[in-house]
Amino acid sequence: MEKQPTMPQPPTASPNAASRRGLSRDAAVGAICGLLVALMVGASYAAVPFYNWFCRATGFNGTTQVATAAPTSAPLARKVAVRFDSNVAGGLPWKFEPEKTEIEIRIGEVVTVYYNVTNESARTTAGQAAYNVAPLTVGKYFEKINCFCFTEQTMAPGETRQMTVVFYVDPSVVKDSDNDSLNTITLSYTFYPVRDPAPQPLAATEPDRRKGEL
Q1: HSE of 113, CA atoms in CB hemisphere, 13 A
Q2: How far apart are the first and last CA of the chain?
Q3: Which of 172, 163, 3 is closest to 71 using CA atoms?
Q4: How many secondary structure helices (H) and strands (E) does the chain include?
């Protein structure tokens, strides 16, 4: 009998070659996952300054604005009450309160108010204030010229300090239909502890001195 022709058999990969291909796939998958994690972490860090910029630009979530000078136009006849709220987060042994809890101002009028802060502990402590205004629709019209919340505050044991806020309500608020019924604004501060305060020059620890009304 004639012998049947034999078909060529495909080469069989060696176990070592298959192992190397598996390792290569695992390395590629690991590299892709690592890159995705790095991108996600980077995006999360970038989102913080972007969110802060967005809040400052739009007044979102009651974020106030920063003014460099007083308004050029005269204040309006329309008045609004401004209430002052003060809070201290846990872990910061400070007493923090406004001199006045409420005042009435004209829209567009530059006003100076004072808060008193006392470090009630026997050690040096540091804090920094966060703030917002209510109703939230007023945030983009509440302009601060000077505010203690922009800097870290370090206080010696038992020290009492007077802190100043200079602000005005932008007259353009009257053109915003969302604020047609506006008659009260609440400015709220909360001091949070700073765990690792930055070194401060000696002059930075001197208490604020009262300045005249702008």
Answers
A1: 20
A2: 117
A3: 172
A4: 1, 10
Q: Count CA within 13 A, CB hemisphere, residue 32.
A: 6
pLDDT in tens, the chain (214 residues): 555 555 555 555 555 555 555 556 666 655 665 565 555 444 333 333 443 444 444 444 445 567 667 788 899 999 999 999 999 999 999 999 999 999 999 999 999 999 999 999 999 999 999 999 999 999 999 999 999 987 899 999 999 999 999 999 999 999 999 999 999 999 999 999 998 766 655 544 444 444 444 3
Angle at 80 between CA 79 and CA 86, to 5 degrees: 150
Of all helices (H) and strands (E), which one includes residue 162? strand 160-169
* DSSP element (H, E) containing 33: helix 15-58
Strands 184-193 and 125-134: antiparallel
Tell me the C-alpha distance between 139 and 161, whole Å: 27
Strand, coil or helix: 114: strand
Length of the chain: 214
Measured CA distances, 14 to 8, 11, 17, 18, 66 (Å): 18, 9, 5, 7, 71
